[in-house]
Design goal:
Blueprint (H helix, E strand, L loop, with lengths): L8 E2 L8 E2 L7 H6 L13 H24 L6 H4 L5 H5 L19 E5 L6 E6 L9 E3 H6 L1
Antiparallel strand pairs: 1-2, 3-4, 4-5
Length: 145
């Protein structure tokens, strides 16, 4: 953390590195981006009070981040699983079921594509015979050609 004093303060909005002359009001970029959401406070706060409040906020956030960095990660699934006796680990299970293979859905059709053969907008799929550029062909024209 830099403790040297600066002529300008940083923008009070978190994450914005821009410099401002009044720490109570955001920089021009933030003010433009958040024009409908930013309004002056009904309570008047001095520059020193605003600087102290922002320093407290930044110090609290830095403490939370430091605590999160110090946390130990949760164990992975392999580490959390209880140890099985060595003789059971050596033998594979008697019946292993593999998931059934999904049926081949075929070519992927998309709606509202311009068919190169009939020049109509229909549900089409890419025509593999018309590469390198992608050309679409509808089911009707595919059966004809």
């Amino acid at each position: 953390m830099n403790d040297t004093l600066s002529l300008f303060a940083k923008c009070p909005l978190p994450g914005c590195p821009n410099l401002v002359d009044d720490p109570r009001w955001p920089c021009r970029e933030c003010e433009t981006a958040l024009a409908g959401y930013i309004r002056p406070s009904s309570r008047s706060v001095s520059v020193e009070e605003a600087t102290a409040m922002l320093a407290d906020r930044d110090r609290d956030v830095a403490a939370i981040y430091a605590g999160r960095r110090a946390m130990t990660p949760l164990p992975g699934p392999a580490e959390a699983a209880p140890e099985a006796p060595p003789d059971l680990q050596a033998r594979p299970p008697a019946a292993v079921r593999l998931p059934a293979a999904a049926p081949d859905p075929g070519p992927e059709y998309k709606r509202n594509q311009l068919c190169w053969a009939c020049e109509q907008r229909r549900m089409c799929r890419p025509d593999p015979g018309r590469l390198p550029e992608i050309r679409w062909i509808c089911k009707t024209c595919e059966q004809i050609t």
